[in-house]
């Protein structure tokens, strides 16, 4: 706890305890756990953690906090990567993990309604016998509420979109405790300002998401996954670029550089060549998948790609993609004791090869270990910079590398974060990225949260 | 001009004339033309029309108006359908039709940058030799700025999305004259609040769009269009529902009821059966299109659909879709002298058949002529209610029918407008649709346009 802020008043603790009983925790261990995510950012624990079980309870907690101008920080699985959950001004953390019900599966409309604590894997488990699936898949088994908050993405985004594309509607408790619904369940609407997209990616700074209506998709008739290695990074990236430019409806096209492949081989017990590699997946009809494969095989061959190693059985595919999802954990294993500074940028695909190759040069020059991995079909890639959070030199070198990568991406008409979000780690880049538009973001924040109590100190400073 | 507001001051006219010369018009005919759209809403002319040619000129006009709290109303082709351009408090209309340049075609990134006065057809004409096309196609040859403003949609939305899905970034002149850019050209970003989607569909009430970055798509290898008639509306709608639920990636699936088919036959010189009819288009590889056709033919047959009449030559397809796009004009021809009250709703597709059939009963009971036509793959359909704007009884019956249709759609978790927007015509339904969320929209409007000068009196009352 910092000196600048007062701890919670006894009256607030009494009110919240009266409401939640032992679901209000003041224990140091629980608070510590809720002040950290999976990143290198230093933990900043909240003053209390409220384990809520309903929208009504969220309303009560927010109203109690709002009356006293005490910060409110929503919390799901704590798997964000930019310090999103750090309680920089203390306050009450609202842990939504017990709000974990799938409320409706509208199979005929290809949508579902869930509470925010449902994780992406739990949703797919729930959908198992319906012939439907939910595609958005960040590495972690994140909560869907958290994925809404960070505008999460993943390996399927190139075909199925990000959270910005699959959220149909949200129920949100806003800063004064009102409960609003951002849209109806219709597939499209022109009825007023688009509040749904405003809340997706707002990182808890405008309200607490308490219910989510999501698009789901039919499991395709045919699914084929493959791995293909390249002699150089250039070839791998250019094969991706041509695949996208040709409009192949590929479901997944993921790049892992040789450093990352080495890490994945060790962590996940694989034996792929330690070379720049693409993980691919094709969805469609039997005939459609064959067509896509023929096109992409030819493009990869043209860039020096080796033969495709196929995973046709579902269990092999699961193993392959679990290895991809575990890439960040695998990276950490390369240098035990370090924490990952996981950073991501996204550029127009015509600039992707140049951006990745220049970044690779910077990594070599820095002396840091920093695997490259990316959802390159979207122009999006990550570095996992391995740093000792207590070593200022490590942190300084990593920040310098990150700064150069971000500024390079911005110069290429790209963005400082494709999917991880702003949190604490990317705030200082928003002026360079948005210019005058940052003033509008600030005006919106002030309008919807005049006392700055909703996850304060993130995205914009007010 | 109404009595409640003062006309423009001489100083403002002098300032704008100094800036624009004879591109500032005060003529009654020009003002009249700029106060009307294609709907039944009574024209409400602005006090002056500024024919701008650059972002800088838009800035100068907005600043001049803002300094005097004079309303600013952006204007493209004037083809909106809910009174969006009516100058309800007078002011200066900013006509952007001379800002009609395609600024960049980034073929490798599948995007283009255009000025707001470029029409959808002009853009496709410009793209003719690139192998690319822009899919969003409201009936009119609207300006892209206007299509951003109304969150327009059209026949291809079921496959390629609406304006909400294809706008990557906007340059906007906001209420105080600042120029902002809502996003970079990257395909995705998690860098702060989603201003792009906030401006798409904001109907000029938050700013004047001066530049648009849009996704474009590769022209598919194979395109096939077909027309199929059904003995009843029920069968046609259920064939659509099953097509969508099966996940067929159909590019267009449009419903026209027998009244609309009669109108189209007459207006466009066609001779299709006067029955409920689907207009279909399939995009993909040769093999992919064949698969889609086989699936959809079987579904249609199962609901009593007749044989498919194919349009394989590009010129036949153009004729077919021009007829569809002219549906509203065709409808007007059914009762010369009337104006169309074109209204639209959108519901979850599982409720679409019920919603359309109940609406059809209401039409019969009303005695009005009102063809049904719709982008039914999205759950979206329109009535074109033919009314004499000067006959209060006509207007009253049409409003009653519209009210019932909207409230029915809302009861089915649908929206009061799928694509036409709010304008003047749907404002009174927003409370029923959005409840408390309307308060947030109002707060956003106040924050970004504190003096209420940007197209005032639309979407929300402040």
Characterization of this structure:
The structure is a homodimer of 462-residue chains. In chain A, α9 (233-245) crosses α11 and α9 (233-245) packs antiparallel against α14 (352-366). Chain A has a seven-stranded antiparallel beta sheet, sandwiched between helices. Chain A contains 17 helices and 18 strands. Chain A has helices at residues 10-20, 28-33, 55-67, 120-126, 144-150, 157-160, 163-166, 195-199, 233-245, 258-268, 286-302, 314-325, 327-332, 352-366, 392-411, 430-434, 437-448; strands at 24-25, 48-51, 72-75, 92-95, 102-106, 111-114, 132-133, 167-174, 179-181, 207-215, 217-218, 222-229, 252-256, 277-284, 309-311, 339-346, 372-375, 380-387. Chain A has five domains: 10-97, Uridine Diphospho-n-acetylenolpyruvylglucosamine Reductase, domain 2, CATH 3.30.43.10; 102-218, Uridine Diphospho-n-acetylenolpyruvylglucosamine Reductase, domain 3; 222-328, Alpha-Beta Plaits; 334-421, Alpha-Beta Plaits; 426-462. Chain A has 462 residues and is α+β, with helices and mostly antiparallel strands. Chain A is globular. The interface between A and B is large, with 93 and 93 residues.
